[in-house]
Amino acid sequence: AKRAFSPPFAVIDLVAENSPAKEAGLEVGDQIISWTRKDGNIIEFKNRTVTDCFTLVGQDTAQSEGRQVQVRILRETEVLDLILVPKKWEGRGLLGC
Question: Is residue 14 a contact partner of residue 25, using CB atoms and an 8 Å limit?
Answer without folding.
Answer: no
